[in-house]
Amino acid sequence: METPGTRYAKWVANASPHEVLSLAIRMEQGAVRTYRAMAKQASSTPSRAKFRYLAAEEREHARILAEARKRTSRPSGPRLAPPPMSEVESDVEDLTPTEAVRLAIRSEHDAEAFYRLCAKRCRSTKARRMFETLAKQESGHAKALEGELKALQGPLPWSSLEGFVPEEKDYWTA
User: Fold this and answer.
1) Which of 1, 47, 88, 138 could bond 30 through an S-S bridge, CB–CB 3.0 to 4.6 Å?
2) Distance CA 54, CA 137 (A)
3) Which pTM value belongs to this model?
């Protein structure tokens, strides 16, 4: 079975730093568009807020990557065709909310695997840390989206509330 790691490994191994960063920027920009569209379609205020937050995080990732790309030189020879990345071209407008969240989860896992590969290839400790941090944040995005998916699939079972301490305001209405 092909995994994101195996799908991108050969490309990352042969790409220049400039090409890797250019693809990463496109991935993040695609994620921003996806999350903005999901925020517009969300049916609840918390969901809209979550998607706007994720869009802002991905926009910041693109900014960080663009700053890093400024410190690299463009390759002079032929460029590698980038691998297909779900975060680059996602169209969620024709999907149900559940399908859109599932696509976003898959995209976040793809991005995490891509950044982990990039981190392994880096000689510079600073660049490696940047990619490791991005991978960790993408993993966190996937976890946040998994919570959103559970909410879309219906009420949470009582067992999921274990450890939750209700406040007084949770019991009474005004």
Assistant:
1) 88
2) 10
3) 0.80
DSSP state letter for 6: H
pLDDT band at 88; cut points 50, 70, 90:
very low
Tokens standing for residue 143: 């976890």
**Residue 149: both structure tokens together:** 């998916």
Instruction: Say which residues have a Cβ less than 8 Å from residue 90's Cβ, sequence separation at least 6.
Output: 30, 31, 33, 34, 103, 104, 107
Radius of gyration of the chain (CA): 19
Q: Scanning the structure block, which residue is given the tokens 């982990």?
A: 116
Residue 79 DSSP label: P
DSSP 144: H
Domains of the chain, each with CATH number or no CATH: 4-170 (1.20.1260.10)
Where do we find the tokens 């950044």?
A: 115
What is the mean pLDDT of the segment spanning 107-128? Answer: 93
